[in-house]
Write a structure and sequence with these properties.
2 domains, SH3 type barrels, 4-stranded antiparallel beta sheet, single chain, mainly beta, 8-stranded mixed beta sheet, Cathepsin D, subunit A, domain 1, elongated, 3 helices
Length: 216
């Protein structure tokens, strides 16, 4: 694909989780004040202020007359006065990671849209996923019913249509109701994986490798 064409297109494509089995804590809130709480942890009373962490690693996030929010190891729990909770949580499940390496300076991957296979170029400069008309037809998208707009590309002004994709998947990362644009022509030859999908992910570069994982 012509990199200059892509550059032109970019212009307008505008609980119960968390504490380990070895760290079983019996917690009861015995006193509540504005931004302070008296917390009994394994039969030891601690006066915690907002932002303060007990020796057991429990941090007070907020407190008022109705209850307190406590956090340990990044996991928050709400407690009412006198409520007693024995914590014996499993660690959060690690998010699936998709790792990509560049080809000719571009990050490419094969994914799927609405269950159909699609080849993508990862494009952080595109505000939305971009597909050409042929790909949209293959995906059974009735794109001509979408909102019609004009976009400026390296080839000039092109007609495009806004559409919503029910499901977009890359590796084991699957997202739903993703905004896309269909250009009424042969470009882009390869679909652009834009920010309407990528903004839902953490993106990290390690040397040439790009790692993608869901934020939540």
């Amino acid at each position: 694909m012509n990199k200059a064409w892509i550059a032109g297109l970019i212009i307008l494509l505008n609980t119960s989780l968390a504490w380990s089995n070895s760290d079983v804590l019996n917690i009861v809130v015995v006193g509540l004040f504005s931004d302070q709480a008296v917390v009994e942890i394994n039969n030891k009373q601690r006066l915690l202020k907002v932002g303060k962490t007990s020796p057991e690693g429990v941090t007070l996030i907020s407190a008022n007359s109705r209850g307190a929010v406590l956090e340990k190891d990044g996991v928050k729990e709400s407690y009412e006065l006198g409520s007693r909770i024995s914590t014996n949580f499993a660690p959060p499940v690690a998010q699936k990671v998709v790792s990509l390496w560049p080809t000719n300076g571009m990050y490419t991957t094969t994914g799927s849209v609405n269950g159909y296979s699609v080849d993508f170029i990862v494009d952080t400069g595109a505000s939305a996923i971009a597909l050409n008309a042929e790909t949209a037809t293959r995906l059974d998208l009735d794109y001509l019913k979408g909102k019609k707009v004009g976009v400026r590309t390296a080839s000039g002004i092109e007609t495009a249509y806004h559409v919503m994709l029910d499901e977009v998947q890359i590796g084991e990362i699957k997202l739903h109701n993703i905004r896309a644009m269909v250009l009424d022509g042969k470009q882009p030859e390869r679909a652009l994986l834009g920010m309407s999908f990528l903004s839902e992910l953490h993106m990290e570069r390690k040397d040439e490798r790009m790692d993608l994982k869901k934020k939540f």
